Amino acid sequence: MTVYFLCLVLFCIGLYCIVRKRNLIKIIIGIAIMEYSVNLFFILIGYKIGGRAPIHSSDQTILNMVDPLPQALVLTAIVIGLAVTALIAAIAIRVYEKYGTFDITKIRKLKG
Amino acid sequence: MTRILLPLFVVIPLGAAFLNSLIGKRIKGFSDVLSAIATCALACISIYSVFIFKDTGLIVYKVGGWIPPMGIAMVMDGLTVFMLVTVNLVAFLISIYSISYMEKYTEKWIFYCLFLLMVAGMNGVIISGDLFNLYVFLEIAAIASYALVAFGTEHEELEAAFKYAVMGTVASSFILLGIAFLYSVTSTLNMADMSLEIAKGGSPRIIMLVSVFFLMGFGLKSALVPFHAWLPDAHPSAPAPISAMLSGVLIKSLGIYAIARVFFNVLGTSPQVLSALMILGVLSLIIGGCLALGQWDFKRLLAYSSISQIGYVMLGIGLGTPLGIMGGLFHLFNHSIFKSLLFLNSGAVEYATGTRDLQKMGGLREKMPVTSSTSLIGSMSIAGIPPFNGFWSKLIIIAACVQAHHFAYAVWAVLISLLTLAYFMKVQRYAFFGELKERLSHIKECPFFMKFSMISLAVLCLAGGLLLLPGVFDSFLGAASDAVLAGKDYANVVFVAIR
Amino acid sequence: MKEQQKGMTIIVKTITRLTVGLILLFGIYIVANGHISPGGGFAGGVIIALSFIHIMLAFGKEDAFKKMNQGVASFFESIGAIIFITLASLGIAGGYFFLNFLSKGEPFKLFSSGLIPLYNIAISFKVGAGLFIIVVILMLFKITKEDEKK
User: Fold this and answer.
1) Dist CA B249 CA B254 (whole Å)
2) Which of C38, C138, C150 is nearest residue A90 as measured by Cβ atoms?
């Protein structure tokens, strides 16, 4: 139970980082923390007490495996997180080229 | 053999996108032709699937031959067919439009590659039968749209794209968290199976938490009011065909369709959830309409108007009665048509005059007759003037509100409809009527492909009311609203169709 | 000496020359055994991309572009995706999209389980080339301050 609670604490830390920090790069790091915490939560849901890794092997018969479905889904979610982080980092670099600063309170051309 | 239709909606745009990136940069003009052919094929297949659905009923396609719930399923029911026609028809017309519009930007093959990826993602969301598959395709469409908003790489586009990307990622994380909680309760990902497990009772508090997460996540994708702040920056800054695509189909396919599918068919609707949807809808109506009145930027005004009209759709769907859901879905279809038309008009105006500021334009009616007449048709549709299609759908929504005894919501809907008329008359007066300014006297009408798309969409605006005729109604709109109303019955119908 | 001014120090360059071939080989091993042991297309593709990025970090851009330039990487990326879609669509002829129609063989052998190793190879092309291009583009920006501040 405490493991899930700590995952949600990590999620809230990531969310705080996105909401409160003023530097563009710190916002990107906050996004990364938030995505990793959701992936971690998803894997922990599939855990069975006393289970072992869900890999077949040719010389033993394994009886007690943890749930393999969340692991496959989290693999996809990690790739999605990577793609989003790469895209947002490229946008942030070009924003720096155009505006000259990483501070979001100064990047405010669109108003109204 | 007609089952083969379903994967084609994803295979054709994906294949065309990657062929584009391989060959499109070497041969000029190849990417235009390929994407026009691909989106035309998709539009034809989606209209054909309306007739297939009328004959065979619900179709379930087992990917790879594995039987669901062990394998991945693609499901085609009434709501799916309705959304597929909306998305693919608008995508085809916008693809034709951007053949001439995107000449101003460099690297057209990159644009078409991302555009087709976005169409593939939207189609995948609509036909998916699993919750995680829906999430993956939603991310594909969303990431393609973040890149497309930043396409011109000017100051405003990059800032708007950054804001949109960060907020969209937060929403996606909430959706994934909701899926994780749902998986822990039901231990399956197939939507039909999940709805059967949830119906057995068990953990009502986790289901309520999941409802809140999904409302936050999908609500941001569909720009409901507390989560709308990205839309007025992202939609004006994108190139005009992408604004039309984002405002016309993306917020509906990723947002409204997902809310309807997940809340009505999987989670089950309690009165609290429905009243939450209705309250969010009315707030969007009011705030979007009031903020649109004071805008001087043409596309920003259209963006706020999108928020307002999505409020109408949400109000209709949130009522939960047959008339309300039918009105909401009809307004969704109509809004795709006339909002895309209006954004394409603003693109044509920008292509000719080089500005989006309403105070710098005037009297364009003499020089650009096609653009101004189609924009008059679009404005009258969105304001709800008979006999255009917007009138019918707004009438049905207001009648449904009165029938369900929510008189305050009906009064607000009528008032905001008058406000919509007011600010669109402002656009018409400042941009098209009035006298021609000096520096605009040399502009000419836009090229052929742009005219073709705008005239086609205007014809659809005029013909939209015909969807309420008895013969056409049952197979298209009626099937869609039946699919949403069926609620938990979705699961039983899907399992019958699997065998 | 001119070689020391570009890229990193000479210790890093020597070790890179020794290990980068092994990293590439290890990536190919993980891709090829994706259906038997953990790994598969994505993880193997990342390791293959890392071997090229390693050359770029240690020696500088010009030497890395001699081994793999952007045009070739872009070609591989598109080819990987097209092979994946073609293999998936071939199943339609057999009845279902994504059907696994090659012979499945016996478990735990290298040439078993039908189409899955081919999917792994296609994915590793796409992911490897894609990651390499992403890192090249992110490193190609020279960050100069804009004179006009808004």
Assistant:
1) 8
2) C138
